[in-house]
Amino acid sequence: MGKRKEKNEVQYKEGFHYFSDLGRAISKGDIWVKLSMLWMGAGYVGRKQIIRGILVTALQGLFVVMCIFYAAPFLAKFGTLGTVEYAEEFDPLTMQKTVNDYDNSFLILLHSIIALFLILVFILFYIHNLKVVYRLQVLKESGKHVNNFRDDVRDLAGKNVHITMLSLPTVGVVLINIIPIFVLIAIAFTNYDQGHMPPNALFTWVGFKNFGSLISSQMTITFGYAFRKVLGWTLLWAVLATFTSFFGGIFLAKLINNKTTKWPKMWRTLFVIAIAVPQFVTLLLVRNFFADAGIVNTICSNLGITGFLQDIGLVSKSINYIPFLTDPGWAKAMIVIINIWVGVPYQMLIATGVLMNIPEDQIESAKLAGASDFQIFRKITMPYVFFIQGPALITDFVKNINNFNVIYLLTQDVFVTTDQALASSHATEVDLLVTWLFRLTNSYYDYKMASVIGVIVFIICAVFTILTFRRMMRNDREGDFQ
Q1: Does 456 map to a domain?
Q2: Residue 412, Cβ density class (10 Å: 0-12 exposed, 13-18 middle, ≥19 buried)
Q3: Which of 115, 119, 414, 433 would disulfide-bridge 71, Cβ 3.0–4.6 Å?
Q4: Residue 107, domain extent
Q5: In this structure, are 25 and 129 located in the same domain?
Q6: What's the DSSP call for residue 262?
Q7: 314 three-class SS
């Protein structure tokens, strides 16, 4: 408890220093620092660092130009997302159709978010620049060496090379991940769907109406019902898929590496071959095997298994096959089982490496103390495996929440829901949130609800990851395995 309080105090002080340093720079800065509040390069020019001053001034100028010619036109329409709809008019003089100067809601939204992001980045750079200029003043007054532009360039290839190397990847992350996330969140608060599709139509802000649809219980709005059903199955699937593959891989690795197992290399090779086959090929083949008229159903029918399942009530007598992938209950069970077959070889390889590094002295000490094999497995092996693979286990859980391939490739064009409420929301009993999201966008162009679901998935994954990692870092057990 004391460590947590001390950590929070450190974080508070760091946040306080960020603003206190800015206030100190403004209040105690000389004329050049204060001029930098208007002309950002003044602090450098006043201290004979001309190249720095020119570069910073150029950046400030580019920002002003960006605001005038790029940000302002789009941000002016950001509140409404456009008011002029697309229209075609026939020009009798040219005998051709002309298109009016219409608004595109999506482009307004996208460019407005980019503009706001650039403005935020510039504000942070502006604050940082004031602090740097004030720091130059302090160094100058204390008689210490102040780096010039040449020193900065040399440092970027030397002690600050990490900044140089990470600059391009950071820009890539911003363009590919961060800005699309902001766009996704923004669309969740609009009515962007097939009936409001740019450029032919406009969409507008609707606030939290879309989120309300997910918790609504009205008979005319089925998204709330579908969301609860799909969310429940998504979380259950993530738990089952993660832990069945995890423990299955450990048990398989223990079995293959057991001293009494013959030909361990052969068994390990057979499972590795399963990894070498592309997953989409494997899943499509398995889907055909377990189809209503597939080879597995033929074998089960010939062996009398289908009739036995009908007698005990697991299969309806109105059909002459086992609905492996067409009945909700059977399909969910088969998806989990097939995922075990697909996922266990990966976990087996990882677990093999982990098990080979368990400290032998602990195992020998436990044996001398009279511990059984099961006690050694429970008290030494599993704690060590959890310690090493804990972060990977969290990653696997999040990955399974978004496991598109297994669900989609096994059930697409095969499973058809009979639940009218689910069908009205374009969902099925075997859908995960991510496959439902994909269907809403790819087949029905309901981008607003897909964005809401995307936000929910992001929140679930983020909260789970943060909480579990914080718990893992708090329980530092590295010393137990040294």
Answers
A1: yes
A2: middle
A3: 115
A4: 16-207
A5: yes
A6: S
A7: coil
Cis peptide before 199 (omega within 30 of 0): yes
Is position 99 within any domain?
yes
Are the CB atoms for 332 and 410 separated by under 8 Å? no
pTM for this prediction: 0.79
Domain presence at residue 318 = no
Q: Residue 223 phi/psi, 5° resolution?
A: -65, -35
- How large is the C-alpha radius of gyration of the chain? 31
**Is the domain of 179 the same as that of 223?**
no
As a dihedral over the C-alpha atoms of residue 8, residue 14, residue 17, residue 21, rounded to 10 degrees, the angle is: -170
* 198 and 345 in a common domain: no
Q: At 455, which amino acid appears?
A: V
CA–CA gap between residue 142 and residue 150 (Å, rounded)? 22
Whether 171 is in a domain gets the answer yes
Q: What is the pLDDT along the chain (482 residues), one digit of tens a residue?
A: 444 444 444 343 444 466 677 788 888 888 888 888 899 888 888 877 788 888 889 999 999 999 999 999 999 999 999 988 888 887 777 778 888 888 999 999 999 999 999 999 999 999 888 888 888 888 777 777 666 666 666 656 666 666 667 777 778 878 888 888 899 999 999 999 988 988 889 999 999 988 888 877 664 567 888 999 999 999 999 999 999 988 888 888 888 877 777 887 888 888 877 777 787 788 888 899 999 888 999 999 999 999 999 999 888 888 899 999 999 999 999 999 999 888 888 888 888 888 777 777 777 777 777 778 778 778 887 888 877 877 888 888 989 998 888 899 998 888 888 888 888 888 999 999 999 999 999 889 999 999 999 999 989 988 888 888 777 766 555 455 44
Return the H-helix or E-strand segment holding 74.
helix 72-75
